[in-house]
Amino acid sequence: MNTRCRAWLYLFCFSVSSGFAQQNRRITLDVVVSDKSGKPTPGLQQQDFTLLDNKEPNKILSFDAVSGGAAATDPSIEVMLLVDEVNTSFRGVSFARQEIEKFLRRNGGELERPLSLVFLSDTGIRSTSTSRDGNALAGEMNQNQAGLRIIGRAQGAYGATDRIQLSLHALQQFADFQSTKRGRKLVIWISPGWPLLSGPRVDLSSKEQQGLFNLIVALSDALRQGRITLYSIDPLGMSDTRGLRALRYENYVKGVKKWNQVNIGNLALQVLAEQSGGRAFQYDNDITSEISTVLADTNAFYVLTFDGLPGDGPNEYHALQVKIDKPGLTARTRAGYYAQP
After folding, report:
1. In terms of DSSP bridges, do strands 77-84 and 110-121 run parallel, antiparallel, or are they unpaired?
2. pLDDT in tens, 118-142
3. Tag placement on the chain: N or C end, fewer CB within 10 Å?
4. Taking 70 as the threshold, does the pLDDT of residue 147 lie above it?
5. Positive or negative CA dihedral for 298, 300, 306, 310?
6. 207: enclosing H helix or E strand
7. What is the Cα–Cα distance from 254 to 35, expressed in whole angstroms?
8. What are phi and psi of 77, to 5 degrees?
């Protein structure tokens, strides 16, 4: 990691909230239950679920089954398709846009669920309206063509540092804004991921590790409070054999419990996606099919609430697991939360 990148990360990490303040302990979990083929499973009851908090049962306070996109108490579901023009090459962005347009114009342009398009560039974030009219959204996308970027992938370490800064700031601000809105949000982030985050292990100083840990806690809290499930789709697909896929982001998916366990890879886009209860798609060039797979998660899922346990100290990590009392079914939800005293 170059000196400029380390200096920026140090300043940015200590500028975010470290989560030490007293928090509302009521936590909402969006849970997708799948069968062996990966298809979401409707029709389950509360008694079919067991919630484990640090491997100990925790009481489920409320339960809603969502089928066809309508929950009894909280029907709002928002889907955002984010095109990352900061971390993706022009060729990758062009391919992603073609695939998105193909998806939007299927079935005569009639979408199964309203969605909006979001574009992240080095000039900021811009978005379209929310609509079920895929043809109209495709038209808006074509009017929002990617322009010449100041920051490019060819700029080496300096460009990489700027892209990390833009990406993490955008994710933090995006999550903070969504926390003011009700309902579940699915964010499909089309990107190979930001650079320097899933590479070989980097020797960090104690202050750098503490700062990164604070940032991890802040992002985890913001995504949870915003009820954001994050999905990442690599537009480079099978051609990205030397990209982030080859660097085994899976090694970092397990939640970080202590600041001295932190590595830079814990902030990878793919890691944050899977920890939020979403998925990282990296092995296929069929973006249209991958988007459809994500949207299937909105057709049948479950909303649970519980009270998080107090921590023995600040930012105490609690691993979460939902077990289903029926054979052949698995549950996917948020990996954990950071408890406060």
Report:
1. parallel
2. 999 888 888 898 999 999 999 999 9
3. C
4. no
5. negative
6. helix 206-225
7. 23
8. -135, 125
Considering the entire predicted model, what is its pTM?
Answer: 0.89
Domain positions in the chain are 3-24+73-298
122 contact partners, CB below 8 Å, separation of at least 6: 85, 86, 149, 150, 151, 162, 166
CA angle, 242 then 248 then 251, to 5°: 165
Q: Strand, helix or coil at 32? A: strand
For residues 133 and 143, what is the distance between their CA atoms, to the nearest angstrom? 16
Cα of 298 vs its chain's centroid, Å: 15
Kindly report the number of other CB atoms within 10 A of residue 201's CB atom: 9
The closest of 213, 198, 196, 199 to 258, measured between CA atoms, is 213
Q: Report yes or no: 218 and 172 within 8 Å, Cβ to Cβ.
A: yes
3-state secondary structure of 280: strand
Instruction: Give the whole-angstrom CA distance, residue 25 versus residue 338.
Output: 10
Handedness of CA 216, 190, 227, 144 (dihedral sign): positive
Q: Tell me the fold of 3-24+73-298.
A: Rossmann fold (3.40.50)
